[in-house]
């Protein structure tokens, strides 16, 4: 069984990196040990830190931060990067694959998401069951439109419906949205903000993904476990408890997608 896992992982790495090469992504393979800053600790509290010659280093715990530092330090003209390799979190090694897009247009983001879904469905004959999306700015739109206090945000993220009901009342549009079935949220948000750029992008994504026949859900309480994502975010699931694909916007002008090879159900 262990041999089979190793060979399947290596086969995936070869197929995936060949795909990225054909799509003009720059493939990057970096040292596992890299310079470390306090800002990195904020984003990756589980990073393993070491010191040498009064300089802090860490073992790579996330490819997104590593590639962002790499791009900024070397001022590269290339905007699309791809990777495959290990990261270490809480003393456990896991393998990641994915891409980072810098200064992408919406069309390029949609094409990259579609490329990943198509690769999995075509190469591995797997069907995605669902995709969950959100954009942190949608909640800001509700808070602004209805003059709500900022602490409502925490209640939404905690899915504290009982307290939201006390604060807002059962007739309030935000409470009605969050107490509805997740599958119905996209229609309710569209009624409020159909003409906003965020919902136009989500509508385009939904249309792009119709061919995969997966359930498409918008959930305003849905958040990334990584703190650096600050805009649109998604997770796509096979028939499995954990997402196979995760990705979103960060750093105001970047977008990343990661393939979960540990427990996403592919290998």
TrEMBL record:
Keyword tRNA processing assigned: no
A matching Pfam family: tRNA-synt_His
Record InterPro entries: aa-tRNA-synth_II/BPL/LPL, HisRS-like_core
Molecular-function GO terms, alphabetical: glycosyltransferase activity
Keyword Amino-acid biosynthesis attributed: no
UniProt keywords, alphabetically: Glycosyltransferase, Transferase
Organism domain of life: Bacteria
Record-annotated Class II Histidinyl-tRNA synthetase (HisRS)-like catalytic core domain positions: 52-252
SUPFAM superfamilies for the chain: Class II aaRS and biotin synthetases (SSF55681)
Protein name: ATP phosphoribosyltransferase regulatory subunit
């Amino acid at each position: 069984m262990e041999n089979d896992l190793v060979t399947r992982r290596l086969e995936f790495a070869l197929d995936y990196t060949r795909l990225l090469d054909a799509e003009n992504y720059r493939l990057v393979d970096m040292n596992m040990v890299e310079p470390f800053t306090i800002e990195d600790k904020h984003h990756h509290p589980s990073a393993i830190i070491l010191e040498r010659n009064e300089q802090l280093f860490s073992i790579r715990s996330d490819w997104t931060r590593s590639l962002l530092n790499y791009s900024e330090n070397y001022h590269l003209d290339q905007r699309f990067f791809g990777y495959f390799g290990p990261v270490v979190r809480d003393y456990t090694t896991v393998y990641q694959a994915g891409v980072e897009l810098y200064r992408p247009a919406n069309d390029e983001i949609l094409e990259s998401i579609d490329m990943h879904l198509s690769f999995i469905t075509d190469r591995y004959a797997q069907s995605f069951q669902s995709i969950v999306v959100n954009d942190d700015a949608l909640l800001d739109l509700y808070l602004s439109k209805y003059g709500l206090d900022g602490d409502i945000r925490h209640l939404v993220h905690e899915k504290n419906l009982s307290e939201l009901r006390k604060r807002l009342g059962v007739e309030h549009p935000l409470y009605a949205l969050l107490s509805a079935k997740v599958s119905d949220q996209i229609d309710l948000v569209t009624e409020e903000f159909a003409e906003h750029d965020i919902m136009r992008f989500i509508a385009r994504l939904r249309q792009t993904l119709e061919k995969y026949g997966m359930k498409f859900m918008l959930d305003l309480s849905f958040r990334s476990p990584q703190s650096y994502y600050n805009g649109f975010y998604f997770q796509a699931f096979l028939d499995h408890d954990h997402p196979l694909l995760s990705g979103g916007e960060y750093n105001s002008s970047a977008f990343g997608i990661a393939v979960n090879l540990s427990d996403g159900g592919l290998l």
